[in-house]
Amino acid sequence: MRLTLIAVGRARVGPSALALAHLYEDYARQLAGRPLGPLTLKEVQERRALPRAELPAAEAKLIRAHLPKGAVVIALDSRGQQMKSEDFARRLGQWHDQGREAAIVIGGAEGLEPALRDEADLVLGLGPMTWPHQLVRLLIAEQLFRAQAILTKHPYHRDLRNENE
Predict the structure, then answer these.
(1) Nearest-10 Cα torsion for 43, 47, 52, 57
(2) 0.85 cut: is pTM over it?
């Protein structure tokens, strides 16, 4: 399986951004050579000065240009379905078994274009809170690594609910 993370915007600079980028790269590196990996990051950014209302459509065009042909599209949206790590891993495992690639999309500050969100195979929410884009990249990379651990029964992921019963 190949995983592509398409993110609107560029990585910021500064100590905290560098720390988040380092952690993201660590998870991405660990996915390389594993069944769910590798994880490739594609950053897109609309360079024209557009009214805020027009940004999602312009960004969606850039995102679509980077979607691997035939890939499963996972759109991140605060209104999306919230899943347990095990369920997310199971879904990724099914797509892996079908020989599909997956593209995970992080929209810009104005959110994803509704049509792009509607076209997605899965609209995934990380909760109702607003998260900085750099942190979302890290959270997704960690969840992909965790999914890999769940699917291969690696001890990285522990389901504490079962241990405490």
Answers:
(1) -60
(2) yes
- Residues in Cβ contact with 91 at an 8 Å cutoff, skipping those fewer than 6 apart: 83, 122
Is residue 134 a contact partner of residue 21, using CB atoms and an 8 Å limit?
A: yes
Given a contact cutoff of 8 angstroms between Cβ atoms, the answer to whether 92 and 151 are in contact is yes
* Mean model confidence pLDDT for the chain: 92
Q: Report strand pairing: 72-81 vs 3-8.
A: unpaired
Radius of gyration for the chain, computed over Cα atoms and rounded to the nearest angstrom: 16
Quick one: CA torsion of 29, 105, 153, 100, rounded to 10 degrees? Answer: -100
Let me know how long the chain is.
Answer: 165
Question: Residue 119: its pLDDT value, please?
Answer: 97
Confidence at 164, pLDDT banded by 50, 70, 90: very low
**In whole angstroms, what is the distance from residue 7 CA to residue 29 CA?**
18
